[in-house]
Every structure is written in structure tokens, then in C-alpha cells.
Fold:
Amino acid sequence: MNKYPYNSGHLLVCPLRHISQFEEFEDDELLNIMNTKQEIIVVMKELFNPHGFNFGLNVGKSAGAGLPDHLHFHIVPRWNGDANFTATIAEVKFYANSLEDTRNKLSKMLN
Structure:
């Protein structure tokens, strides 16, 4: 789970190997990451019924990478009319579920 989520259910897919550049990924790592993202999407749709998703990868500090030496992919579920913009305007954020509850639900479905 993302420690500072953009939305409820925001999580990270991280390779085991620490790398800082996208081109350093091996083919098998990319396939594993994509398969993992696909599995997560299926489970999130079943558990939370989002209307869409954002996928993200920040490469380098200047691109916003909080862990620039360990690339990781963001998966952010989105709902029509979600209040995602509120944090930028009012520095306020609303979450429908706690991080712990969301992690527990996802963990049960993914294991």
C-alpha cells in the first residue's frame, strides 16, 4: 500500500531487484510486473468497483520519485466524481477506507 495514497486503494508494485532506470528491467521482470498489475486490477474491481485506474511510474527525483533507486509502479483506483482534486486546492484528502482495511482486503484476495 502507498503510505501517502492519492486515493483509497492506492498501492505499489515493486520488483524485488533495486534499479533506478526503466531500461534496466529484464524481460522476465517486466512480464512479472504486468501480470501482477493485471491480477491486482481484477481483485480491485471485485472488491472496490472503481470506474477506472491510473497507472504511474516516476523515474528519477525530478519526476517525483520518492525512492529513486527502487523503481515501482503506482496503481490508483478512480471513481467518477472522486474528490482527488481536493488535496491540491484545500490541502485536504478524504479516504473511504483505512490503509489497513484496504491492505487486509487485498491481501486476502491476492494470497
Residues 27-48 form the longest helix (22 residues). The chain is about 35% helix and 15% strand. The first strand starts at residue 11 and ends at 13. The chain has one domain: 11-101.
